[in-house]
Design the sequence.
C-alpha cells in the first residue's frame, strides 16, 4: 500500500476526504504551511501543530542546496531534522529553479542551473528530484515539472506541458514504493483547456497516487485560475487526492474547494505574518497602521490562536513598528490558525452539505464594509 | 508593606534569598532576562517562563519613546501589555539616555535629549522616570542615575556620583508606595572605593528597598568589577537585595554571587541567541561554524531546553546559516535556560554551603580544552 485516500463526503463538486500517510492522517480539504528551508518561518514545530496542521510542505530546491539532501538523509531524514513528526509533502524543485536559480537551461534530460546562494552548478533531472525527495523522506513526492511563465505563446505552453509529461513518466518510474508514501503527477497546460485535458489524460495513463494542478496563481488572475479548475478537475480520478499548488488567498481556497480541490499550499499566511498582515474573517488587517496603537481588542475575538488570546492589537502594532521578532511569531501563528480554521470550517460545511451557504457567508463577511463593525473602523484611515 | 526580601541561607558572602513582589515570588540569586521593548526578543512570554524566569527587566527609555508610558498605562500596564504575569523590574532610563539618545544635555533638573527613533525632544527627570515606571506598573522601580563613562577623571566621577545621589533622593521622594512594589537606589562612584562607599552611605541615609551597583561592566574589565564589588557590597545592608546592573557573562555571575550579589540583568543571552552563539557548560559555541553541519548531537545533552531536547547541532547550524528566525528563537531559549539553570545551581550550592566548590568546578568546565570531549573538537577549527 502506498498513500491511503478516502472520500468521506461530497457536497457538489467539493469533497471531504482523509489522506493516510506514513506520518499520520490528514483531513482534507487541507492547507499545508510552507516550510521552505526545513522550518515554517518564525514558528516552532509545536506551534505549527497547535494551529491544527498535520501536513507541511518542504522545498526540494532550497533543501538540495542547503543543507543538502544527502546530509539530511544522514541525519535521519527531514522529519527528524526539523523535529516534525507529522506528514511532509515536498515539491519537485521545478518551480524554484525557474523563479530563483541563475543561468538555468532546460533540456530533455532536466534543468541545469546555478545556485542563487553560491553560484554552484547543479543538474536537476526527474530521477534526481525523486531521489532527493526520497532522501528527505517525504510522505508525498511530487513529479518534476517545468513551470511555464504566464503569459506564454500557446506553442510554448504545449511544448512545455509535453516535456513535463515525459518528465512525469520518468518521475513515476524513479519513485520507490513504500508504505504510506506516494507520488503525485502535476497537470500543466497553462490556461488552455484542451492542453490541460491532454495533460490529465497523460498523467492518468501513467498512474499516480494523486494529481496536482500546477502552473496557476502566477499572474493569470482568480477568474482564469477557476476556469482552468472548472475544465480540469472533473477529468481527474474521483477517488484520488487533488492538490492546487501555490494557492492562495482565503477566497481562492474557498472557490477551489467548491471546484473539487483537496489540498493547497501557499507562502501567503507565513510571509504576511512577517510583514504585519493579519488575515481575519473580515479581511486583512495591516498591523502597522497607526489606528491600532491604542486598541485593546484582540485581532479576532473568535480566534483561539496565541496572538488573539494573549495580546491586544495595540501590542501587536507596537511589535510590528518596533521590528520585534515576536511580532512575526505571533502574526504567523495567527495566520496559520486562520487558514487551518477556514479549512476546518469548510470540512464541516461539506459534511453537512452546506458548503455553498458557507461560501456565501464567507464572501459577505470578507466584503463587509469595516465601518459596520466599530472595531474595524481604524483600518479605513 | 513594600517589597518583601528574606535571606534564607548564606555561604561566605553569598546569599540565598527570596524576593516577594506584587507579581509573585522570585528566588535569588536571580538572572533577569531583558525585555527591552516590552518583549524578551525572539521569545514568547510562555517560553520565557518555561526557562524558569519569574522576573524580567523592562527599559524605561525604550518604552517611554515607543509606545509611550501613558499609552501602556491606558492599556492596563506593562504586565498586561506584554502578557507577562510574573514580576517586572524597570530601569530608570538613565543608562540608555547616555548610550542611545542624541543631543543629550545633563543638568541638575535632569537630562534633555532627542529620541534616537524620531528626533523628538524629551526631558527625563528623576520625578518623570519614577512616574513612567509607575505608569508601566513595575514591581521594582530604579532610581534615576547618571552613568559616567569609563574611564573618566576622578573629579568627573565624583561630581556625577553626587548628582546621582541628589537624583536618588528626588527619586525616592517621588516613589508612590504600593504593596509588593519597591524602589532601589543605585551606587555610583566608578572604580574608586571611597566614592563608592560615600555613595552607599548616601543611599542608606535615604533608605531604599534594595541597592543596585551601577556603572560597571562598561569596559573596566572583570577584575576591576570584582574589586568594586569587594569594596562596596559589604557596606550594603545585610537584609536587603543587591542588584549588579548589566552583568554579565556566566563567569561574572558566579564571581558576583560569591561577592554577595543577588540580582543580575544582561542582554548577553538574548543578543547572543540572535547571533548564533550558545552558552554551554563547556563554554560558548558559534553555531555558524561549519564543523557543526553534520553533527547529530544536541547543543548540550544535559540541558532540558527546547533547542537541546528537539534538535541537532546540524539543524541549529542550518538555521543560523540560513538566517531563519527559528534559529534565534531556539538559541535564545537555550541561552536563557542556561542562565536560569546556572542561577538555580548556585542557589542549590549556597543552600548546601558548597558555592566555592561549585565555582571551582564551573571554572574548570568552562576552561577545559574542548578536545578532551570529542564532540567539542569542531570548535577548534
Sequence:
Amino acid at each position: 500500500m502506498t498513500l491511503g485516500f478516502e472520500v468521506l463526503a461530497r457536497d457538489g463538486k467539493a469533497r471531504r476526504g482523509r489522506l493516510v500517510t506514513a506520518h499520520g492522517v490528514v483531513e482534507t480539504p487541507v492547507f499545508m504551511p510552507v516550510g521552505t528551508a526545513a522550518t515554517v518561518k518564525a514558528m516552532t514545530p509545536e506551534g505549527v501543530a497547535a494551529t491544527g496542521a498535520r501536513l507541511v510542505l518542504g522545498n526540494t530546491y532550497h533543501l538540495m542546496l542547503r543543507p543538502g539532501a544527502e546530509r539530511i538523509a544522514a541525519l535521519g531524514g527531514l522529519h527528524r531534522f526539523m523535529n516534525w513528526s507529522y506528514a511532509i509533502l515536498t515539491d519537485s524543485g521545478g518551480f524554484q529553479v525557474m523563479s530563483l536559480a541563475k543561468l538555468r537551461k532546460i533540456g530533455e534530460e532536466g534543468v541545469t542551473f546555478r545556485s542563487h546562494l553560491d553560484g554552484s552548478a547543479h543538474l536537476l533531472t526527474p530521477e534526481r528530484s525523486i531521489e532527493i525527495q526520497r532522501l528527505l523522506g517525504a510522505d508525498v513526492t511530487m513529479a518534476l515539472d517545468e513551470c511555464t511563465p504566464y503569459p506564454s505563446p500557446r506553442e510554448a505552453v504545449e511544448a512545455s506541458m509535453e516535456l513535463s509529461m515525459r518528465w512525469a513518466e520518468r518521475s513515476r518510474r524513479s519513485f520507490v514504493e513504500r508504505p504510506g508514501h506516494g507520488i503525485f503527477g502535476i497537470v500543466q497546460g497553462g490556461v488552455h483547456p484542451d492542453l490541460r485535458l491532454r495533460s490529465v489524460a497523460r498523467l492518468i495513463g501513467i498512474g499516480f497516487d494523486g494529481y496536482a494542478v500546477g502552473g496557476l496563481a502566477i499572474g493569470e488572475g482568480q477568474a482564469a485560475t477557476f476556469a482552468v479548475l472548472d475544465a480540469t478537475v472533473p477529468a481527474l480520478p474521483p477517488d484520488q487526492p487533488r492538490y492546487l499548488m501555490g494557492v492562495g488567498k482565503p477566497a481562492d481556497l474557498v472557490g477551489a474547494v467548491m471546484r473539487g480541490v483537496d489540498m493547497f499550499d501557499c507562502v501567503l499566511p507565513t510571509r504576511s505574518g512577517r510583514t504585519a498582515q493579519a488575515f481575519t474573517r473580515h479581511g486583512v488587517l495591516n498591523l502597522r497602521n497607526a489606528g491600532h496603537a491604542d486598541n485593546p481588542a484582540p485581532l479576532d475575538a473568535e480566534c483561539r490562536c496565541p496572538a488573539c488570546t494573549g495580546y491586544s492589537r495595540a501590542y501587536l502594532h507596537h511589535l510590528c513598528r518596533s521590528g520585534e521578532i515576536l511580532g512575526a511569531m505571533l502574526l504567523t501563528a495567527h495566520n496559520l490558525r486562520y487558514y487551518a480554521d477556514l479549512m476546518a470550517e469548510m470540512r464541516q460545511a461539506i459534511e453537512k452539505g452546506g458548503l455553498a451557504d458557507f461560501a456565501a457567508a464567507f464572501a459577505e463577511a470578507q466584503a463587509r464594509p469595516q465601518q459596520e463593525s466599530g472595531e474595524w473602523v481604524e483600518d479605513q484611515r
Summary: Chain B has two domains: 4-266, 272-372. Residues 307 and 330 of chain B are 5 Å apart (CA to CA).
